[in-house]
Each structure stands twice: as structure tokens, then as C-alpha cells.
Design brief:
It is built from seven helices and 13 strands. It is of the alpha+beta class. The strands form two sheets. Strands 2, 3, 4, 5, 6, 8, 9, 10, 11, 12 and 13 form an eleven-stranded antiparallel sheet that branches.
Length: 293
């Protein structure tokens, strides 16, 4: 069944999460990121910059349920793939935070691969102060859009340095190992469960060769390396991060982060990168991390 574009502009309920150190530490440990900012509880522990994807997950599922209530079948729901991610970090999450997250469908349009849907996720703390704003696009492969293309809000433009490598050689290449069990470990530690990442039977029924690593886990692995490389391992400097998901990451494998730009501009210090999978194909393009100067 098609996705109904009449749902563009609609928001989910607000979902509340109580964040503790067990959750934030598990998220980082699943990625193999054992920096003291994440695990040393004798100091000021913070969550990984991509941690908001974890509490956002329940809200994202409610948004998909609304499409299902309008006719999307269970198998069509499973055909949703993470296409782009753009997280604006107002401040890092900390253990003890009480977070409220709401999602708004802001765009739906029919594209050749399927229905392209953009969601804005707004997360605030107990005082109502913004913690992060995420613009996330999904593609429902092979699913049409009913009611015509509709736009409630356009996603913000990417930093100027992103995607400007023009075939130039990378400034640096960093190998990133991907363990055979990473998708299972990340699913439980992040509390993000989608069977295409852990259940071979489901993955193959969806046309995949095997289970694949979550796009968010792949992005988080890259962000960890960028923070180590360009921010001295200090995640508190991260102001924005994102990328476009282009290819599968299988396990076990080794992927490669390639940094193409590291420059200071109006957006802050922008590190632009991409990520190649083990076959040398693009896994993430137009990757970026914006750091406080």
C-alpha cells in the first residue's frame, strides 16, 4: 500500500526516557569507544554524540506505525532503510537526563527507489531546553506515495565543505574494524532492534545477502574516529554530525574512513569525510562532523 502524504505535518506523542550511565556507557562500549569521557564515572561522563539515536528510536517506530495504520503492510514497514542523518547537537546527553522526544513528518515524496520520507526529531530535557534536533530521511523501497508529494519543512543545508572533495586524495585514511557480533551487541546496548540487523531469515526475505550493520552504528563508528582524529578525543566539541547512507556493511569486515576536508568556516570547524565498506564501495557519503573551534 502507498504511504499517505496527508500525514506530513503530523507529530507523534512525546516519548520520555530516563537516561542512566548504564545506557550511555553501553552505547559507547558497543562501538569499542572506551574514552574516559564516556566510561570514567569519577569524572564528568557524557554520552556519545550519536547517542540521541537511541531514545529517538521509539519515536521513529511510532511514526512508522502511523503509516501502518493508513495501510502500510508489515513487510513494507521492514523495507524502510535509513537514508540520511543530520543531528544538531545543542548539548551532549548526560546520565541523569530526562529526555522528551517528539517526531514530526516534514516531507514525503515519491522517488525511483520508493517513498522518501523526512522526519524531524526534537529532544528536550526536563527543563524544556533543547538537547538535539535531528533531521532523518528514510526510503521505503518499492513503496509508492499516495496524495502527491508534500512538504511541511525543508531540511537545513549541509555545511559548505561537505561533499566538495571532487575526486581529490583524502587527507587521511583510517581503518575501522567491524566485529562479527557488532550488530547484535549494538542492538542490545543501543536498545535499537530491527530484525534485518540480527535475523538472517528476515534479512534475506527483505532481499539482503545477510544481516547488515545498522546505519547508525556505522555512522557512530565514523564519528568516534573523527572525534579522536580532529578533536583530541573530546566529544564535547561536537556541534553537528551526519551523512548519507549508500551501501551495506557486512560483518566481520574492515571499513575505511577517508577525511577530505578539515577547515574552519561559518559553521565552525567542519571535518568532511566518507566511509568505504570492505568491497571498496561507498557506505556513507557526504559525512561530516562540525566541531566548536
Amino acid at each position: 500500500m502507498p504511504i499517505d502524504s496527508a500525514l506530513v505535518g503530523a507529530s507523534t506523542n512525546s516519548h520520555r526516557h530516563e537516561v542512566d550511565a548504564r545506557w550511555t556507557m553501553a552505547f559507547s562500549a558497543a562501538l569499542g569507544d572506551t574514552g574516559p569521557h564516556y566510561l570514567d564515572t569519577t569524572g564528568d561522563v557524557v554520552a556519545h554524540p550519536l547517542f540521541p539515536i537511541a531514545p529517538e528510536w521509539a519515536v521513529h517506530l511510532e511514526g512508522r506505525d502511523r503509516f501502518a495504520a493508513n495501510g502500510l503492510t508489515p513487510d513494507e514497514r521492514l523495507k524502510s532503510v535509513h537514508a540520511t542523518h543530520d543531528c544538531h547537537v545543542h548539548r551532549l546527553v548526560r546520565p541523569g537526563d530526562r529526555l522528551d522526544t517528539r517526531a514530526t513528518t516534514v516531507l514525503a515524496e515519491e522517488r525511483r527507489p520508493g517513498a522518501y520520507v523526512v522526519t524531524r526529531l526534537d529532544t528536550t530535557d526536563a527543563n524544556g531546553e533543547p538537547v538535539c534536533t535531528t533531521w532523518q530521511a528514510s526510503v521505503y523501497r518499492g513503496v509508492a506515495v499516495a496524495g502527491g508529494d508534500r512538504v511541511h519543512a525543508q531540511p537545513p543545508p549541509l555545511p559548505a565543505a561537505v561533499g566538495a572533495n571532487g575526486g581529490s586524495a583524502p587527507l587521511v585514511e583510517i581503518p575501522v574494524p567491524v566485529a562479527a557480533n557488532l550488530a547484535h551487541v549494538y542492538s542490545e546496548c543501543a536498545r535499537i532492534w530491527n530484525p534485518i540487523h540480527t535475523d538472517v531469515d528476515v534479512a534475506r526475505r527483505m532481499g539482503l545477502p545477510d544481516i547488515i550493520l545498522h546505519g547508525s552504528a556505522t555512522l557512530a563508528l565514523a564519528v568516534s574516529r573523527v572525534v579522536d582524529h580532529a578533536a583530541g578525543g573530546d566529544p564535547n566539541r561536537v556541534r553537528r554530525l551526519g551523512g548519507m547512507f549508500r551501501g551495506m556493511v557486512l560483518m566481520p569486515s574492515e571499513i575505511r574512513l577517508r577525511v577530505f576536508a578539515d577547515e574552519v568556516g561559518d559553521d565552525g570547524r567542519v571535518v568532511a569525510w566518507d566511509l568505504l565498506n570492505a568491497e571498496g564501495r561507498a557506505a556513507i557519503t557526504k559525512g561530516f562532523v562540525v566541531l566548536a573551534p
